[in-house]
């Protein structure tokens, strides 16, 4: 039997002081193919960071304007993709942002401003394609709560003035977090807390919108606690009006179109992209349909719409 042995390298003898250090407390005999990475030290890290400081400073400031790295490579193919995406998202965002403005206790035009100004600026400073830029339901609800509370204390200030001041303060905080690269702080927020907050906010928003959907929102405070809104809603059921018919049928149409498109895309896979766009734009179709119905009902008496 042939006995296979590994080539061994004898490390040079170390002094007593060096060998007693933890950094040198390792096996003296190593195989030929092993690799030992030197222990990282603060000194080596500082040396690496301070090497060519001019380039480090340049890269730091260029990281705030990432579009410089790709804008010269922008081409027609990218443009058509961006155009289709912009039209698709814009068709959804327009009615959505107007609804979010209502949650924030602001006029609809403020929702439109918020929906496109952020997107127009964002591409200059970041590259994420997944992040949501603009108003969202939770943020709009919180803004509405702050606006109402401040207006109650200082009635001389209008709602949009309070909301603008709040946006400026929040923007300064976020800007400071970005400048000092403090985004890692979010990692310390536990996931269960985030999930609970988002779930609770969703229930609160949904319950607050049901009275508006049914037309009896004038008879109860939709900004109250969720359980109070739920209880008061059932008490005010007799005050539901024609809005309930419009709201429920439009909701039914939204889900019906989505269901039909999902089934059709599975049955006709070659036209899956077409059904995807139809499903994505279903909110636009429903809005246009009910705008047309509203015009048919009110065009003879526009000063007293029903």
TrEMBL record:
Subcellular location(s) of the protein: Membrane
Keywords: Membrane, Transmembrane, Transmembrane helix
InterPro entries, per database record: SLC26A/SulP_dom, SLC26A/SulP_fam
Principal location listed in the UniProt entry: membrane
A GO cellular-component term linked to this record: membrane
Membrane-crossing residue ranges in chain numbering: 76-94, 106-125, 162-184, 191-210, 242-262, 274-297
The UniProt record lists the keyword Transmembrane helix: yes
This protein's record includes keyword Nucleus: no
Family annotation (Pfam families): Sulfate_transp
Annotated membrane topology: Multi-pass membrane protein
PANTHER family linked to this entry: SULFATE TRANSPORTER
Protein name: SLC26A/SulP transporter domain-containing protein
Organism of derivation: Rotaria sordida
């Amino acid at each position: 039997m042939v006995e296979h042995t590994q080539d061994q390298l004898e490390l040079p003898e170390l002094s007593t002081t060096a060998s007693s250090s933890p950094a040198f407390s390792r096996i003296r005999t190593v195989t030929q193919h092993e690799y030992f990475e030197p222990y990282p030290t603060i000194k080596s890290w500082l040396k690496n960071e301070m090497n060519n400081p001019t380039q480090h400073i340049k890269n730091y400031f260029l990281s705030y304007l990432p579009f410089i790295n790709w804008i010269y490579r922008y081409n027609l193919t990218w443009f058509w993709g961006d155009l289709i995406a912009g039209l698709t998202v814009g068709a959804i965002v327009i009615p959505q942002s107007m609804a979010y403005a209502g949650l924030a206790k602001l006029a609809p035009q403020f929702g439109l401003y918020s929906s496109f100004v952020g997107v127009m600026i964002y591409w200059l400073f970041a590259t994420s394609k997944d992040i949501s830029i603009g108003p969202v339901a939770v943020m709009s609800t919180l803004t509405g709560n702050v606006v109402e509370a401040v207006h109650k204390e200082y009635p001389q200030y209008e709602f949009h003035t309070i909301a603008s001041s709040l946006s400026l303060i929040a923007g300064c905080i976020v800007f400071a977090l970005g400048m000092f690269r403090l985004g890692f702080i979010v990692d310390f927020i536990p996931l269960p807390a985030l999930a609970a907050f988002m779930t609770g906010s969703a229930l609160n928003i949904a319950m607050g919108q049901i009275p508006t959907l049914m037309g009896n929102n004038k008879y109860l405070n939709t900004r109250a606690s969720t359980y109070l809104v739920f209880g008061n809603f059932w008490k005010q059921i007799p005050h539901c009006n024609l809005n309930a018919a419009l709201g429920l049928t439009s909701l039914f149409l939204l889900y019906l179109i989505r269901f039909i498109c999902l089934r059709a895309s599975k049955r006709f896979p070659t036209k899956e992209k077409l059904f995807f766009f139809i499903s994505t734009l279903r909110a636009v179709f429903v809005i246009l349909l009910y705008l047309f119905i509203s015009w048919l009902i009110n065009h003879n008496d526009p000063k007293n719409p029903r």
